[in-house]
Write a structure and sequence with these properties.
heterodimer; A: mainly beta; Immunoglobulin-like; 6-stranded mixed β-sheet; B: mainly beta; 7-stranded mixed β-sheet; 4-stranded antiparallel β-sheet; 0% helix; 50% strand
């Protein structure tokens, strides 16, 4: 079936280090969304990418959508303890609904 | 973005019983969804709650086990029926203004433990 794969599953970094999570789809996506879920919280929308090769920035976060619209990445520069949480990508399924990746859980050591 | 509330926030239930979870939105929304998130796992879509008609269930989920109501554009319920310990999970409702792949806003979730 259609899948959205995300790696790595876990990442531990020292505060100030960079962090990247990667998302890959088995099929071409019309768009991709990224969500963040803090420990004990619910997913919160971060951004949506629509165009091939699109790059968007939110402060220290950089989001990219691949040229083939089958992969995406989220890069955080100089992580802070407030970045802790699980980051999910989500792409459109063949039934027109969102499929969430498995998520990457980020731990930041102060 | 919409403000979403869910009741109850958590519950501990006995196997064989049923629990109804409510989702209330502060504005009218086109789409409402119900997800399940097992501990440390990703989100799995259970169904789309359709206003005035039967919900649309995803593969692996059936109406007898997860009946859903959506009487209007701001409210929905999900019932987890004849519960077993395998139903222990977080249940989240989400809303979107447009179609299924529009930005979704999630409620705080209901943490269910079945003994």
């Amino acid at each position: 079936g259609q899948q959205v794969m995300q790696i790595p599953q876990y990442q531990h970094v020292q505060e100030g280090e960079d962090f990247t999570t990667y998302c890959n789809s088995s099929t071409t996506l019309s768009n991709i969304q990224w969500y963040k879920q803090r420990p004990g919280g619910h997913p919160v929308f971060l951004i949506q990418l629509v165009k091939s090769g699109e790059v968007k920035k939110q402060k220290r976060l950089t989001f990219q959508f691949g040229e083939a619209k089958k992969n995406s990445s989220l890069h955080i520069t100089a992580t802070q303890t407030t970045d802790v949480g699980t980051y999910f990508c989500a792409g459109e399924s063949n039934t027109g609904k969102l499929i969430f990746g498995q998520g990457t859980t980020l731990q930041v050591k102060p | 973005s919409a403000v979403i509330s869910q009741k109850p926030s958590r519950d501990i239930c006995q196997r064989g019983t049923s629990l109804t979870i409510q989702c209330q939105v502060d504005s009218q929304v086109t789409m409402m969804f119900w997800y399940r998130q097992q501990p440390g796992q990703s989100l799995t879509l259970i169904a789309t709650a359709n206003q005035g008609s039967e919900a649309t269930y995803e593969s692996g989920f059936v109406i007898d086990k997860f009946p859903i109501s959506r009487p209007n554009l701001t409210f929905s319920t999900l019932t987890v029926s004849n519960m077993s310990p395998e139903d222990s999970s977080i249940y989240l409702c989400s809303v979107a203004d447009g179609y299924g792949t529009d930005t979704q806003y999630f409620g705080p979730g209901t943490r269910l433990t079945v003994l």
